[in-house]
Design a protein that fits this description.
By secondary structure, this protein is mostly beta strands. The chain folds into five domains: 64-155, Immunoglobulin-like, CATH 2.60.40.4130; 163-237, Carboxypeptidase-like, regulatory domain (Immunoglobulin-like); 240-313, Immunoglobulin-like; 319-495, no CATH class; 513-685, no CATH class. Strands 38, 39, 40, 41, 44, 45, 46 and 47 form an eight-stranded mixed sheet that branches. It has a seven-stranded antiparallel sheet with strand order 28-27-26-29-32-48-35. It has a four-stranded antiparallel sheet with strand order 5-4-7-8, with no helix packed on it. The radius of gyration is 46 Å and the shape is rod-shaped.
Length: 706
């Protein structure tokens, strides 16, 4: 199509496609020949004086352009030499020092936060080690072989070879603190940032503990790290927080203390609130205490690992007192209230929601542990009103006194006609008596449980169970043995617990006539036998339910009575009282420590006889008084309607019975203490009542645990 055209008339091409051909006059005289473009280029290159690229001392030998560019890069370097471009996608290496070394000479750079570091001017060659370490000390490294002045590449990463724990915490006291990961042999550390997080890499496995301390408390978490593959784990470090509130303005600015064994922490009330931070050393039962300088307040908590926040209300300890004036004789006129009882009404209804009384609760106890609490108005029900099992032996129905309560019984004048009876919920006041809480040593129990029912014995063991026949006709020794056979802490009812309940009765009812205040009980003189346990289950806590629905029950002497949570507080069957005897001179002999009880009183404390020089028995007018001797008889010139209105006796070398039996009529009551019978006595009208005295187990120290 270009025929007839001259050379200059031909279209001009902008490129020479591969395979193009030229007409070339050959220089060897062979004439004009067709030559490909590729052959022309090859021939021209061979004639240029550049040499063979294989002879270049460069890495880039594929062509001269790449070789020239490599030389330019060397020239642009300030000091010349090779360069290594180090890359990472591991955030833990961002901002960290990167080093290159042959073992003798080391060059360094800094990893950018985009994951790149260029190290230039490398004048050493051979196998060079490139490395960088995380803040936690985990090192990533690789090897680069440098043979000439070129640019090389390397990648670093720690994540493929190490486990990682992501730690978070909301505990501001741990910010900036060291956090440690350890399996007991190996460990790794990091620092918790101001965002409450830390990332720690480590190369070990097994049972791992993560800990951090604010300087006082240590937060910890545990996890199991598999040794089969690396992984990422997470933990949340938490401390325990207690908030104590009080409405008592006298406590503002005062210190509040949390104690568990040998460990303690403190806070200070401000605006009625105090905050205490603590750690896992406080896993046992803890006592919270505060004082305004004259009175103390205590609260118990029992931390568990699943709870990190506790809130309690603090009230100062109370002292309730009753002054009994024996210049008067009417039992409901003899008492006036004092201390924190002042202004209260003389009826249990007004006391039911007051400290101490509101905390006394019926419960089902099994092997020394509370299974559940009961509805105080109906013991056949749990506190949530569902059915309770109170008939199975071993499910003992007990009255819980959940903390130490002290009592005091003291004459205020030399004439001994003004008696002060007091109780307090302060756990250790030298002016008060705590023998009710003394098992192996004085005041060593933190709470006690008194059998709601008279004792039923089976298999040589005593129980407190509903719907059972009361076991009788055994000696006090036998009953003591059968009560203790239930296990450590189980005892026959103690004189200390009886004195405490008698004091609580006087305070809460404001009278000495228990039968008139609560009910006569099952005591009719024509009765020939007692009745089974459980007759008062639906009577209420203090017979208040039945007094409303069937008031005649309380006066006809045909029905059992419920007083301060206990069935047959008096009446139906007598019960032995342990820890009280008389000697040959009618001295009142008492023992504080339950483990030391013996029937004949050997080793007991001698409290004197109050001037009683002959055996006495009649309605009590005056007690011995004093917190040790308590309400044993001193003067029995009263009647069934004056003074204590209950029968009492004090004979030489005798043991103690309490409460009265099924036919004792108006002689029975809360103060019928009969120190009358020989140490070997047993009878068909006399049984026992079970107790359990709880002792907190000593907290195991770290050394003991190890």
């Amino acid at each position: 199509m270009n025929e007839g055209k001259t050379f200059f008339d031909l279209p001009q091409a902008q490129t020479v496609p591969a395979g193009s051909r030229y007409a070339v006059e050959m220089g060897d005289g062979s004439g004009t020949k067709s030559v490909t473009h590729e052959d022309v280029v090859k021939a021209v290159g061979g004639d240029l004086p550049l040499g063979d690229t294989k002879d270049l001392e460069t890495i880039a030998k594929d062509n001269f352009v790449n070789a020239i560019n490599e030389i330019k890069r060397r020239t642009d370097s300030a000091s010349g030499g090779a360069a290594i471009r180090v890359l990472t996608t591991d955030p833990a290496l961002y901002g960290r020092v990167v080093s290159v070394t042959d073992g003798k000479t080391t060059l360094t750079g800094s990893m950018s936060y985009t994951g790149e570091c260029m190290i230039t001017g490398i004048l050493i060659n051979g196998n060079l080690t490139v490395s960088a370490s995380t803040e936690e000390g985990v090192t990533a490294e690789t090897t680069v072989t440098v043979t000439n002045y070129a640019t090389y590449s390397a990648e670093l990463d720690t994540r493929g070879e190490y486990n990682r724990i992501d730690v978070k915490t909301a505990e501001t006291g741990l910010y900036g603190r060291t956090v440690t990961v350890s399996n007991g042999t190996d460990s790794a550390t990091g620092t918790i940032g101001n965002d409450g997080t830390a990332k720690i890499r480590f190369s070990f496995s097994g049972a791992v503990t993560v800990t951090a301390s604010d300087g006082t408390n240590t937060a910890s978490a545990s996890l199991n790290v598999s040794g089969e593959s690396v992984g990422v784990y997470s933990v949340d470090l938490q401390l325990y927080h207690l908030t104590v509130t009080t409405a008592d303005k006298k406590l503002n600015g005062k210190m509040v203390t949390l104690v568990c064994g040998s460990y303690s922490r403190t806070g200070t009330f401000a605006g009625g609130v105090a905050a205490i931070t603590f750690d896992s050393n406080f896993m046992g039962e803890c006592l919270i205490g505060a004082s305004d300088g004259s009175r103390t307040g205590t609260v118990k908590i029992h931390p568990v690992p699943s709870m990190y926040a506790y809130s309690v209300t603090m009230t100062l300890a109370v002292v309730y007192s009753a002054l009994i004036d024996f210049s008067k004789s009417a039992p409901d006129k003899m008492i006036t209230y004092a201390d924190d009882a002042e202004g209260m009404e003389h009826s249990f209804a007004s006391w039911r929601d007051m400290p101490i009384f509101k905390d006394m609760r019926p419960c089902v106890l099994k092997n020394g542990e509370v299974l559940y609490y009961l509805n105080p108005d109906n013991y056949t029900q749990k506190a949530d009103r569902t059915a309770a099992d109170i008939t199975t032996l071993g499910n003992d129905v007990m009255l819980e006194i959940p903390y130490r309560v002290g009592y005091s019984i003291e004459w205020l004048n030399a004439g001994k006609n003004l008696l002060k009876v007091s109780v307090t919920n302060e756990p250790d006041n030298a002016a008060f008596k705590y023998d009710a809480f003394s098992l192996d040593s004085y005041n060593d129990c933190d709470r006690i449980y008194i059998g709601v029912y008279k004792g039923h014995c089976s298999g040589n063991k005593a129980y407190s169970s509903s719907g059972k026949a009361v076991t009788v006709s055994q000696t006090i020794d036998t009953f003591r043995t059968w009560c203790r056979a239930r296990g450590a802490g189980y005892q026959q009812r103690t004189y200390g617990s009886l004195k405490l309940m008698q004091c609580l009765f006087i305070i809460s009812h404001g009278t000495l006539n228990s039968q008139a205040a609560v009910g006569t009980g099952y005591v009719k003189s024509s009765h020939s036998a007692g009745v089974n346990t459980g007759g008062t289950n639906a009577y209420g806590f203090d017979s208040e339910v039945i007094r409303t629905s069937a008031p005649a029950y309380m006066t006809n002497q045909e029905h059992q009575v419920k007083c301060l949570g206990l069935e047959d507080f008096w009446g139906n069957y007598w019960e032995f009282i342990d820890g009280l005897t008389s000697d040959a001179n009618r001295n009142v002999m008492t023992c504080d420590i339950a483990k030391n009880f013996v029937t004949n009183g050997t080793g007991y404390k001698n409290n004197g006889n109050g001037g009683v020089t002959a055996n006495i028995a009649n309605y009590m007018k005056l007690p011995q008084g004093g917190s040790d001797a308590g309400f044993t008889a001193r003067d029995v010139s009263g009647s069934d309607s004056t003074y204590f209105t209950d029968y009492a006796s004090l004979y030489a070398s005798c043991l103690a019975l309490f409460g009265g039996g099924w036919n004792d009529a108006l002689r029975a009551g809360a103060f019928l203490l009969h120190v009358y019978n020989a140490f070997s006595f047993s009878y068909v009208t006399v049984g026992c009542r079970l107790m359990f005295m709880h002792k907190e187990e000593p907290k195991e120290t770290e050394e003991e645990a190890a």
